[in-house]
Amino acid sequence: MTDTTPFGTRLRTALDTRGQLCVGIDPHGSLLTAWGLNDDLAGLETFSRTVVEALADRVAVLKPQAAFFERFGSRGIAVLERSVAEAREAGALVLMDAKRGDIGSTMAAYAETFLAPDSPLFSDALTVSPYLGFGSLQPAVDLAHANGCGLFALALTSNPEGHEVQRAVGADGQSVAQAVLRRLAAENAGAEPLGSFGAVVGATLADAGVDLAINGPLLAPGVGAQGATAADLPRVFGDQVRNVVPSVSRDVLKHGPSVQALRQAAQVFVDDVRAVTN
Ligand SMILES: O=c1ccn([C@@H]2O[C@H](COP(=O)(O)O)[C@@H](O)[C@H]2O)c(=O)[nH]1
Question: Where does the Orotidine 5'-phosphate decarboxylase domain start and stop, copy by copy (predicted)?
């Protein structure tokens, strides 16, 4: 039976009880090798299972990066399906990082893939790209509402190249990113304690320069390997820092394959974030 409690409500509880952290499951070939595994399907399976075993019962959010599973074709996707199911079963919220976005009728198929409870890839939330127009995401918004799921729309991404599109200013004087954030805020209006429609805002930004008060979660990739630290979060997110979900992949995963070392590394980030948010 699927829990249709809104994603934002479930996420608020997870962040408050487990700490503000999302760990990415990014099985880079180089990490598999560093773990003493082969860069093949068996290596992928062992890597993913170990991360889930180490972290799913203690970290608020696990974020599998779909690309690293898709590179092994259908058998890699089968590993992804098992990882998602096992992580959810162990108590983590699963945010599928697939960054989907297309015209509405195709978007409906993507939404069914990740947000329909009878799908083998059913996840608690999905990253989406609003760059075909925020309205093109409507089928995903509708299915998320219906099934208690969440969406994270790319607003200000952590990579330096994102700015040329996302900071562009339209005829109404607002940046593209600000327009995305306004649409998310409208979707979250009245939701308590937290809306289910989040934004991706990189922790690597010098400053956000937009209104981040969307009454929803702010996924902050870029902590760790991309150079940001917990200490950057108050500067970038200001009074919204309590709604931030800092996301770390390589800087935690490099501590494997030891389950204990993975747990310890994640706990260090949780503690560092707590120190700057309290
Ligand atoms: O703006 C964005 C959006 C998504 N990502 C994804 O997050 C992880 C980051 O991995 P690290 O190893 O912690 O750098 C990765 O899956 C990206 O695709 C992002 O980095 N920036």
Answer: 20-265
